[in-house]
Amino acid sequence: MKSVPIEDIAEPHPPSQGREAALQAARKKKALVAAIIGNALEWYDFIVYGFLAVFIAKQFFPPGDDVAALLLTFATFALSFAVRPVGGVLIGLYADRFGRRPALSFIMATMTVSMLIMVVVPSYASIGVAATVLMVIARILQALSAGGEFASAATYLLESVPEKKRGLYSGLYSSGPLLATVMAALVGLLMTQVMSPESRDSWGWRVPFAFGLLIAPVGYYIRRYLPESEVFEKNTDTQGTLEKLRSVFRDHRRALVVALSLAAIGTSVQYVLLVYAPTYAVRELKLPPHVPFLALLVCGSIGMILTPLLGMVADRVGAQRQLHVSLGVLIVLIMPLYVWMTAEPSTAKFILCSAIFTTVTSASNAVYPKLMAYLFPPELRSTGMAISYNLSATVFGGFSLYAITVLLNAMQSTLVPALYVVAVTAVFWVILVALHRPGADFKV
Question: Mean pLDDT over all residues of the chain?
Fold first, then answer.
C-alpha cells in the first residue's frame, strides 16, 4: 500500500467557515486590546503629568518662585510636544513601509523606558540640574513614542474590523483616554487622601508612573505577537520612504487640512478639559486637591461607557453628522457653564460641569479616528495621520497648557480655558464645513 506523507493528511480540507470566523474574532480582539492599552498608557502618562504639575515643579526646578516653576514644568510639557511630529512622521513612515505590528512594538518599548526614567530619576535637591535634564529626556522619549501611537494603533485597529463597525471600534479606541483618566484619577485620590503631604512630595508623586510601568510590559508582549494588518499585507505599493512623505504633501493636501482640523479640535478640548483640569481647579477655583480627581473619576467612567455607544450611533447616523452636532452643542454650552461654575466655585458645580462636557465631547471623540484614518490611502495612512495629528497636538495640545497659564496670569479671568476652547473649535469647525463634500464622511 502506498504511503501518504503525514503533511498531506494533517489538513485534508480547507479550514471551515466556523474556524475562519473564530480566527477573525480572535484577531479583532487582539487588535482592540493592543490598541486600547497603548492609547490608554499614552494618555495616562500625559494626564498624570498634568495632574502632578504642581508637585513636579517642586522636584525638578530650583525652589523659590512657584509660578515660574509651574511655567517651566508646562514649558517642558510643551517642549516634548515639539518633537512629537518628528516621532510621528518617522514611526508613521516605518509603519507604512515595514508594517503596523513592528511599529506598535517599538512604540510600547519606548513608552516603557520613559516611564522607568520618571520612576527612578532623583530630585533637583539631590543632583541639581541633572534632574531637570533627565526629566526632559523622559518627556522627549514619551513624546517620540506618543507621536506614532495614534496613527499606528488606530490604523491597525480600523484596518482589522468590518466597515460597518468602524464607528464602534473607533469609539472603543477613543475610550482609551477615558480609561487612562479613571486610572489617573484613582491614583490621584490615593495621593491626596491617603498620603501625607511630606510623603507625596518626596516619593509619592512617582507612584502613578510606577503603576504605568507595571502595565507597559503587558502591552509590549501583546503587540509583539500581533498578526500583521491584512490591508498592509495586501498592499503592493513600492514607494520609497521619502517619496511617501512627498506624496502626502503633494497629492493629499486637502486630506491633511481636514485631518489637521479634526485633530486640532480634539486635542485642544481634551488637554484643556482633562489634563489641565486639576491644576485649574486647585489654583484658580481654590477647590480642595481631591476634588478634580473625584470629578475626573466620575467623568472618565461616564466617557468609557458613552464613547463606544456613540460610536455605534455614528455607524447608523453618520460620523460627520454626529461630529457637527457635538461641536455645536459644545460651543453653545461651554461659556455659560464656565460662568456658572466660576461665579461661586464648589465641588458639586465642578463635577457637574465636567460630566456635561464629557457627555458632549464623547460624541465627537468617538468618531475622530474613523474620520481621520480613511482620508488617506493604505500606503500613506499611518504617515498622513501621524503628520496631521502630531502637528495639531503640538500646537493645540502641549502649548495650550503653557498659553492658558500665561493668559490666566495676564488677564486674571477664570474664563480663559473656555474662551480658548471656543476659539479653537469655532475656527477649525468653519474649515471642516468649508471642506465638506456631500457623501461619505470627509472622503477627499
Answer: 79
Contact 241, 93 (CB under 8 A): yes
Q: Do 278 and 56 touch, CB atoms closer than 8 A?
A: no
Q: In degrees rounded to 5, what are phi and psi of residue 192?
A: -85, -25
The C-alpha cell of 293 is what? 480627581
Q: How many residues does the chain have?
A: 444
Domain residue extents for the chain: 30-225+241-434
Q: Enter the C-alpha cell of residue 442.
A: 470627509
Q: Grid coordinates in use for 148? A: 506614532
Identify which of 156, 39, 89 has the alpha carbon closest to the alpha carbon of residue 388. Answer: 89
List, for the chain, all residue ranges whose pLDDT scores fall below the cut of 50: 1-14, 438-441, 444
pLDDT score, position 356: 92
Q: What is the DSSP letter of 121?
A: P
Q: For residue 116, which amino acid is it?
A: L
CATH number of 30-225+241-434: 1.20.1250.20
Residue 96's contacts (CB-CB under 8 Å, 6 or more residues apart) are 244, 379, 380, 381, 382, 383
Cα dist. 267→48, 211, 395 in Å? 16, 25, 9
Per residue in 264-282, is it b (16+ CB within 10 Å) or e — as a string?
bbbbbbbbbbbbbbbbbbb
Residue type, 223: R
Q: pLDDT by residue (tens digit) across 297-324?
A: 888 899 999 999 999 999 999 999 999 9
Could you give the CA distance from residue 273 to residue 357 in angstroms, rounded to a whole number? Answer: 8
Tens digit of each residue's pLDDT (9 = 90 or more) over 344-375? 889 999 999 989 999 999 999 999 998 988 88
Whether the CB-CB separation of 170 and 374 falls below 8 Å is answered with no
- Cell numbers 488606530: residue: 154
Amino acid at 198: E
Q: Diameter of the chain by CA atoms?
A: 95
DSSP 330-341: HHHHHHHHHHHH
